[in-house]
């Protein structure tokens, strides 16, 4: 039995991404929907990064974190969307073994890094509102760089562990992954191995990742709300809350989708796909919109950039 499992694992050269179980006539509609969402992700996140890098007024810790958030959103959606879109046009829907490993590794790296980055952004808002006079001292350039580097480092460690655990499993004859990208949960369903210890380690790893970030976010906002409620002026309270509302919106969308996916039983794979779609593509699309529509500094910087481009396009033809 062990020899057969090892053989099946060693012979596995590619997988089939089943995708969404819909009629073939709907594939064109789904392709156009994915294309629209991915185009908005590219424009939104590249635009946000360009605004932050070109406007000196946005050279602050909050926008340094926001620029990295856009970078992460851009890359982990790019790990998923192009392959998912190409599969709407192909009959085989195959992905190589190496490609599957790369998808799991890169997606896990960026999604975990985003969780830690959101916790760092919550801490930044806590310092800005609860200790504004010491903000520049606490949130130094060095600390901000360390927090971002730490987020990527935690993402990398988690990704290495998750990927190595997944691909040390022995896979049965089936190559059909019931998902639109390679993910550890649908791959577990193809395994001939005993998954008890694997699930224990995966659950522990998820707890180590999720609990600290959620605790930091919750504790930060408990202090923030307590401080804001002590502000006497209505205008002051409104301004303080407005600086946090965008971050809270992003946190709610991401963690809501993640918790929904992991709480969905394995017997409902289509629900898991919808939840995965939310945090792999919808969240990266919404994040720039949430920050740009609810942030006066970003809107002012965008208006200034567009005005500059308009002036340049008017002057250059005359030269």
TrEMBL record:
Residues spanning the membrane: 28-51, 63-81, 101-123, 203-229, 241-262
Recorded GO MF terms: G protein-coupled receptor activity; odorant binding; olfactory receptor activity
UniProt keyword Cell membrane, yes or no: yes
Originating gene: Or9k2b
GO CC terms in record: plasma membrane
Protein name: Olfactory receptor
Entry's family note: Belongs to the G-protein coupled receptor 1 family.
CDD domains (UniProt xref): 7tmA_OR9K2-like
Pfam families to which the protein is assigned, alphabetical: 7tm_4
Membrane topology: Multi-pass membrane protein
Natural source organism: Rattus norvegicus
Protein's cellular compartments: Cell membrane
Keywords, ordered alphabetically: Cell membrane, G-protein coupled receptor, Membrane, Olfaction, Receptor, Sensory transduction, Transducer, Transmembrane, Transmembrane helix
Domain G-protein coupled receptors family 1 profile: from-to ranges: 44-291
Database matches in InterPro entries: GPCR_Rhodpsn (IPR000276), GPCR_Rhodpsn_7TM (IPR017452), Olfact_rcpt (IPR000725), Olfactory_GPCR (IPR050516)
